[in-house]
Specification:
Length: 441
């Protein structure tokens, strides 16, 4: 099937130009500058993108789609549909399921579900635990995005707290190691102090005090030291503090294979927002100070941290709207991450070229994705077309049924995954186009 996307403003590799995109059999056949004035009869589909922006599809390196084990709040089918509606054409899903995906066999079961149900492209992390080093060593880095290590506990019981195990993982893992970095002993101490002060009525603005800067920095420092000791490829997920940015920057400058990721909610919210949003912005690591938020924005703008993602984590409102200690941690974001970044761009914090780099180009480079993340000849036709001047109300597509947002100033108009239109005029087409992601590692 040949598709022509004509007369849109194409954003790719720092360039912005009026042009046309030619798709043939799931692949970008060509890209041209200027308006199209040729013969249109050879195309099976023509999309007029006049006045719209044509971007490479977003690559989200951290989502929790809840399947298997918690499909009452999300599943691969529902959450990949939400991703498509948000212009996300590839995702990498976390292993803290029930049961956890800590074996190659359990990982392949998730791939089978995704092959059947996923609207967009997919990969799955293998989860680390205290006794599965043999499974980690068996990972094929060409078809698995990485190994996830919870160095702090979060949703799911996958805390890796044995130092010998951590040494073995960082020494033996044949692929990228992605870490959740929070020091558990610090969190426990802070929580005990909060309970002593507030009892069962801990206010939500205590969340960044309990899951504190110190907890994040100590754990991130430990992960970077392990990566330096063993020459590991380390990717620190959901960086939430200015001090972690500095640690990652220094490690990279020293030649270590260390990168970081910042999630959109740490760029949009700060601790002042707990009063308004309460449990609805409770997540791990915690959203922290205004100073941290501005430092994270600077890190993204300056390219110190190049990957922006979501940590999409759906929970039902009945699981969120509880007292602090019972309230689930996590925010559903995969449908709105691109619009959030475009919102910040419209305020002058980032250029649209920055947004495309941090959400498409850099994740592709970071993970060594094969022929994705760019609008280039021969690359998979993963494309999102947006209208920067069309406000829209939020209609949550995640199975959890809610969002902390009500409206945006931009709209996701069309999404193509592997040259197949999965979103048309802001609505799902019903087509499933996802493929297993492959990596040049």
């Amino acid at each position: 099937m040949r598709i022509l996307i004509k007369n849109g403003t194409i954003i790719n590799e720092g360039n912005s130009f009026k042009g046309c995109l030619f798709i043939n059999d799931r692949v970008i056949e060509d890209v041209s500058k200027g308006t199209f004035d040729g013969d249109e009869s050879s195309f099976d589909q023509i999309v007029d993108a006049s006045g719209l922006y044509v971007l490479p599809g977003v690559i989200d390196d951290q989502v929790h789609f809840r399947e298997p084990g918690a499909t009452h709040k999300g599943c691969i089918a529902s959450e990949s549909a939400a991703a498509a509606l948000g212009g996300v054409t590839s995702y990498m899903d976390m292993p803290n399921n029930n049961p956890p995906a800590c074996s190659i066999a359990s990982l392949e079961e998730k791939y089978e579900i995704a092959q059947r149900d996923s609207v967009v492209n997919y990969s799955f992390y293998l989860g680390a635990n205290n006794d599965n080093i043999s499974e980690i060593k068996a990972v094929d880095p060409s078809c698995v995005c990485g190994v996830k290590v919870f160095m702090g506990s979060s949703t799911g019981n996958m805390l890796v707290d044995n130092q010998e195990t951590l040494n073995a993982i960082f020494k033996e893992a044949p692929c990228l190691i992605a870490t959740h970095c929070e020091e558990e002993s610090v969190i426990k101490k802070n929580l005990d102090e909060a309970i002593a002060k507030y009892g069962d009525a801990i206010p939500f603005n205590m969340h960044p005090v309990i899951r504190s800067e110190e907890a994040c920095v100590l754990s991130t420092k430990k992960a970077i030291e392990l990566a330096g000791k063993y020459g590991s490829r380390l990717h620190v997920l959901h960086v939430s503090t200015a001090k972690e940015v500095q640690l990652i920057s220094e490690a990279a400058a020293s030649g270590a294979q260390v990168t970081g990721e910042i999630c959109v909610h740490y760029l949009y919210f700060c601790d002042k927002d707990y009063e308004k949003y309460g449990s609805h912005i409770k997540c791990n690591p915690a959203i922290k100070s205004y100073e941290d938020m501005t430092a994270l924005r600077d890190a993204v703008k300056d390219g110190i941290i190049k990957v922006v993602a979501t940590d999409h984590a759906p929970h039902l409102l009945s699981e969120k709207d509880c007292p602090y200690r019972q309230s689930a941690s996590g925010i559903p974001l995969v449908q709105h991450s691109l619009q959030l970044m475009l919102e910040l761009s419209s305020k002058g914090l980032f250029t649209i070229e920055d947004v495309v780099d941090r959400m498409s180009h850099s994740p592709a480079r970071c993970f060594g994705l094969s022929r994705r993340g760019f609008i280039k000849k021969g690359y998979s036709a993963d494309i999102v077309i947006v209208d920067l001047n069309q406000p829209c109300s939020v209609v949550p597509a995640s199975r959890c049924g809610w969002s902390p947002f009500t409206s945006f100033n931009s709209s996701i108009v069309h999404t193509f995954c592997n040259g197949i239109q999965v979103v048309e005029e802001g609505k799902l087409t019903g087509k499933k186009a996802g493929e297993r992601l492959l990596f040049n590692n």
